[in-house]
Protein: Protein SCAI-like
Amino acid sequence: MAEDDVVPNTFRALVEGADRKFARVRDFPSYGRAQGQHYFHKVFKAYMRLWKYQQENRAQLVKAGLNRWEIGEIAGRIGQLYFGQYMRTSEARFLVESYVFYEAIFKRKYFEGGEVKDLRVRFKELRFYARFLLVSLILNRTEMVKVVVEKLRALVDDCKANFRETNFKEWRLVVQEILCFINIDTTFTIPSSRPFRYCAILDSHPNSVPYVSRFHAKKVLKFRDAVLMSYHRNEVKFAELTLDAYRMLQCLEWEPSGSFYQKHPAEPKENGVAADYSAASGLIDMNLAADMTDPTLPPNPRKAILYRPSVTHLIAVMATVCEELPPESIMLVYLSASGKPGHINASQVETSGGSRRTRKSMFASHNSLEHNCSVPESHVNGVKESSDYHDNYLWLGPKGSGGSSNLYPGDIIPFTRRPLFLIIDSDSSHAFKVLHGAERGETAALLLSPLRQIFKDPSTVDISKNGSQFTFFLTAPLQAFCQMVGFSLSDSDMELLNVAESILSTAFSKWEVILCKSPSLDLVWAQVLSDPFLRRLIVRFIFCRAVLSAISPPEGSDQFLPLCLPQLPNSLSPKSDVVQSCVRELADHLKVSHCFHFADT
Structure:
């Protein structure tokens, strides 16, 4: 009898040991280059040993009472470890490995058919579906997301029916979150649209490639690290990933050039017949991910993604990333937040907006009262006073919190000792102009959003449910353009969509050539022009600025325009022929020219 207990006891000991190691790494911060990497290897090794042991002794373990959900839990822990490594390193292979394990759990139905009345097991299954959804969402596995959402919804309903004394309100909110997310994300609403990620085939323009490859600035910086943060009331999110952060995260990664997103692993077969996994099985092809990655691509920039951080936590993360930034590298910081606490949301502004008597009222603001958005006079005149660094701010805090939730422009200055590419998306963004000329070492590259958003029909767009317009332009310019003018895109308009994308690609290619050839290009932009991610952000900013310049009302138009500092060459200004012709051609193609006022009309 004692011999029969050896395998189960060894298995339980391995489980307990692996779980202890997992508990230590679970709460490690997801930023920094040296955050316990050596210990992650120990945890991976412990779980791989556990996984191998249950495979080799599966028959004895099943006989001793091993449940299928226990195998699923082990595989789920390995999936969690891989996903955690992806969040820390941004390496695509870890994301793919995580997906492989979660998909195997899902297809082998490890959690289904278990103890229906065991609430503990049901909560494990709920958490599994939520984690699998997040991985599938980031990986753009749209069909799998739709399937898993329905599974999660059915499971929540089943739990409510079988455990009436337990409150599942939190899980109902999870279902609502993911449904809202996929109803807005264009990856799901327009499956044929271009990916957010950088695709070498689509985003590398043949006509400008020779100029970019020959372009050499006095100094060249490598884009290695980014800090991404979005903090708005009632913003669309799933788990701890907001819509704006999700779009920017993908915008700063490589799209595998092969059939990665279309590849679906074949169901394993035994003797020509589909394998039956109804029994307790531990078979997961851990090498499958090797067939789903693209080894020819450079590594993704490392990203720290922060969800509703405090100001002190944000500064601490920026300090860590800045301190560990490799030589001759630049750090990108993306901050999306409201400028003042207690802002009225978009729908309230529209409801109280009054009649539409003029063209100006046709394009309504999606922000709060105008005085909250205005730039201090000293900024407009180019004079910086010491108080300017602390007059306006980003609001990072819950309703009713005090000044400790204010992120001031002056808080960013210490990080300008290293090269900084700063994107501020806020109705107080222009307050951060004071950083230009106040840097402590390196001149920062600044992309600042408009103070107010503009739409042809504001009643059809709710900022709290559609994300930021400026971020949308930087990550998906065509979709942002169509949303702004109220043009509905769908897969039925494939030819129309392709021609529109071609118009943008041609224009972006021309602008890249102009940037490379311009003698007036500031060194701040020249030293990052070789990086494909930052170059793409720059040309998309040029497009965004030109579109908003052509659609905004003449009165107070500065509030509707984004800013960049240092200035880009005048040859790419919103009024230049090479830029305005792109906007005009796109507007004509989509038959929305009546929304714009061009320089010669």
Q: What stands out?
A: The first helix runs from residue 2 to 26. The CA atoms of residues 456 and 486 lie 6 Å apart.
